[in-house]
Amino acid sequence: MISKEINEMLTRVGRGTPAGELLRRYWLPVSVAKELTLEKPRKKIKVLGEDLVLFLDKNGQYVCLAEQCVHRGCSMYYGFIEDGGIRCPYHGWKFDASGKCLEQPFEPKDSTFKDRVFQPSYPVQKLGGLLFIYMGPQPAPLLPRWDVFVREDGIHKIQVDPVLNCNWLQAQENSLDTTHTRYLHGEMMKTKGIPGAEYYLRSIEDYEFEQFRWGVIKRRVWVGENGEKEREVGHPAVFPNMVRVPQGQWHAMQCRVPIDDTHTMIFSKLFKPTTDGTRTDPEDPAVDYLGSLLTEDGEHELTSFTSQDKMAWETQGPLYDRSQERLGVSDKGIILWRKLLQEQIEIVQNGGEPMALVRDPEENHMIEFTLSQGQAEWAKKYRVNQTT
């Protein structure tokens, strides 16, 4: 249990809020890149409580501006896309990708007013078929080149979940929840007659959490019917809003992006190595848009991991009141993550730089998760294979 004050600190994402300022230090995926084309070059988005517009200009450059024009508040979504910028549809003020005002029709020709006017804007980068924006102070860190985004020896796919009707932290804390798999997934699959339930119904003999460069690794030791043990290499919860998980034969990085305090976007980038090393373009993945994951009666369908998780997160409420919960020993990973969030928020508030940012280009050729010393000791203890 945490106080209402700390709960507010960890969950609210608007500009000036503690968690909001922390999240603004990281690149956030906000759209599938191929949704913007020269024929349909604009898209409204909302991120961290801010209404924004993505544009694809005539030079193929991606632009992100605040939706309301700084002049009189008209929506820039309906603006005119021109060479070198976007022109407001109301009075024709023109802005470049950085938000600098280039032209102000009807102002005096010798006026310097436009030199003092800026439309809020955010840098955009494309990686792995997704568009990322950075909403924090400059200089921006490097956009991390996670292996599932940039490897070429396999098949790429993007999964876009339906909007999650709850706060981002309800989804992210699931990444540190060791035991929920047994009932939310195993028993639910068994009840629904879904093959493979027995895999998740095995006993959990032990579990631990290890903090590392990018966040926290969650590990379990499963015990089968004949007493055989299977030790997980681990599911890394990547700070502050991602998790790296296996999805069948796919390697997946799931990103939880707050729309506002009570709604969340979830993008998953998936990669499956080919047996012969056939190379593919990571920037042109297939895209799978999931439906509502609700039945005709409006209930959660509960026939997949995604729909089961969605039910658990949304039924906690739009913004879960953690001051009313009763945590047990098995919740130590969640407690660890909350402490980590508080520590990193305090670092930002004191003018420092939070964890898991990338500044060194040499580190950013391709970022992979490798077996740590802690994992090796764990594997030796249980005499199990150290393979994924």
Structure description:
- 20% of the residues lie in helices and 28% in strands.
- By secondary structure, it is α+β, with helices and mostly antiparallel strands.
- The model is unreliable at 371-388 (pLDDT under 50).
- It has helices at 4-11, 18-23, 147-150, 168-172, 180-192, 197-200, 305-314, 332-349, 373-382, and strands spanning 28-32, 42-47, 50-56, 62-66, 80-82, 85-87, 94-95, 101-103, 121-122, 124-127, 130-133, 154-160, 203-212, 215-223, 229-231, 235-238, 242-247, 250-260, 263-273, 286-289.
- It has 2 domains: 36-133, Rieske Iron-sulfur Protein (3-layer Sandwich); 147-382, Naphthalene 1,2-dioxygenase Alpha Subunit, Chain A, domain 1 (Alpha-Beta Complex), CATH 3.90.380.
- The chain is globular.
Outline, from the CA principal axes?
Answer: globular
CATH topology of the largest domain: Naphthalene 1,2-dioxygenase Alpha Subunit, Chain A, domain 1
Structural class: alpha+beta
Task: Assess the beta-strand content as a share of residues.
Answer: 25-35%
Number of helices: 9
Task: Give the class-level CATH name of the largest domain.
Answer: Alpha Beta
- Average of pLDDT: 92
Helix content: 10-25%
H/E element order:
HHEEEEEEEEEEEHEHHHEEEEEEEEHHH
Compute the gyration radius: what is it?
23 Å
Q: Unreliable stretches, pLDDT < 50, 5 or more residues?
A: 371-388
Q: Characterize the main sheet.
A: 9 strands, mixed
Q: In the residues, how many domains can be counted?
A: 2
In whole angstroms, the N-to-C terminal distance is 34 Å
Which CATH architecture of the largest domain is right? Alpha-Beta Complex
Count of strand segments: 20
